Amino acid sequence: MNGKITLQSVKEIDVRFSELDPLNVVWHGNYIKYFEDGREDFGIKHGISYCDIRNAGVMAPIVSVNCDYKRFVKYGDKLLVETGYIDNPAAKIVLKYTIRCAADNAIVAEGSSVQVFTDFEGNLLLIAPKFFLDWKQKWGLNQ
After folding, report:
1. H-type alpha helices, the chain
2. Between 20 and 30 A from 88 (CA), which of 22, 25, 99, 141?
3. Is the pTM of this model over 0.90?
């Protein structure tokens, strides 16, 4: 995912036993859950949480997510999920993720997600909602 990261948060996560697969490494699908943990942390820290979006009268479903795996992790590892916002002129939220092993800072996975805005009936909003434009202005992100 190209683009400059303009806002970022970092969330520490402990790898739990229940996240392992039969090979005793984290099951690949859990990395998407780690992205979700990062997305929630970013939203809370920067005032664009799921509750903030819902309270503005819209929803922001994920329409795309990808993950590139670099290295496996095991039970007991501590991970750092870096979540960065990539500004763009469209009515969407683009986030980039980098998951690192806290012990050696090695990258274990990278990925991105795209969220669009809809009304509560699921109709796509092609123009960014006012709350999102206000949020971007607050953080100096207007393009």
Report:
1. 30-46, 50-55, 130-138
2. 99
3. yes
CB 132 within 8 A of CB 91: yes
The answer for residues whose C-beta is within 8 angstroms of residue 95's C-beta and 6 or more apart is 35, 38, 39, 42, 83, 84, 85, 86, 112, 113, 115
Give the model confidence (pLDDT) of 14-47 as tens digits.
999 999 999 999 999 999 999 999 999 999 999 9
The one-character DSSP state at 123 is P
- Tokens at 100, concatenated: 């690192």
Phi, psi of 34 (to 5 degrees): -65, -40
Answer whether 83's CB lies under 8 Å from 92's CB.
Answer: no
The amino acid sitting at 21 is D
Domain 5-137 architecture: Roll (3.10)
